[in-house]
């Protein structure tokens, strides 16, 4: 029996040259303008409608997961921490949903480790981070959540050439 995936194209195989150019631009070069997609369209020599249609299509196909600002939380007066939680499989779905409901959570990943959920949390203060983590523990029944604030910050820019 043939694997279903053998008969389907992967999302990146469905990208044409314009899709790739759009992806390369929006990773770090989306202009801060009232109509950023119009500016991008002019650069790519197509219409704003075409860029918007393609971006929406790539979001629908989950080629694009998220479009948003990447701010330096410290310069905005916030603090952040990396969190690791030991989540029993029976609580996994509920835990992930609760964690993802907080606007300060920027990343949330499952890991093959005793501490199997890792997420980053940004808040106005260390006290607010403690309050949120306590609240997550109370709401989910998961008691083992570690906060691992950075001692030194190493920030790099990563763009993926498509």
Secondary structure topology:
Layout: H1 17-26, H2 36-44, H3 48-60, E1 79-85, H4 92-100, E2 105-110, E3 117-123, H5 126-140, E4 145-148
Description of the molecule:
- This protein has 162 residues and is an alpha+beta fold.
- It folds into 2 domains: 9-60; 79-148, Alpha-Beta Plaits.
- 35% of the residues lie in helices and 15% in strands.
- It is built from 5 helices and 4 strands; from the N terminus they run αααβαββαβ.
- It has helices at residues 17-26, 36-44, 48-60, 92-100, 126-140, and strands spanning 79-85, 105-110, 117-123, 145-148.
- The chain has a 4-stranded antiparallel sheet.
- The protein is elongated and about 55 Å long.
- It starts with 16 loop residues before the first helix and ends in a 14-residue tail after the last strand.
- Mean pLDDT is 87; it is low at 1-7.
Amount of helix? 25-40%
Strand order of the largest sheet: 2-3-1-4
Low-confidence stretches: 1-7
CATH topology grouping of the largest domain? Alpha-Beta Plaits
CATH architecture of the largest domain: 2-Layer Sandwich
Biggest beta-sheet profile: 4 strands, antiparallel
What does the radius of gyration come to?
20 Å
Tell how many strands the DSSP assignment holds: 4
Looking at how many chains there are and whether they match, the oligomeric state comes to single chain
Helix count?
Answer: 5
CATH class of the largest domain, named: Alpha Beta
Count structural domains. 2
User: How would you classify the helix and strand content by structural class?
Assistant: alpha+beta
Q: Hey, roughly how much beta strand do the residues contain?
A: 5-15%
Report the mean per-residue pLDDT as an integer: 87
Shape: elongated
What separation lies between the terminal Cα atoms? 33 Å
Order of helices and strands: HHHEHEEHE
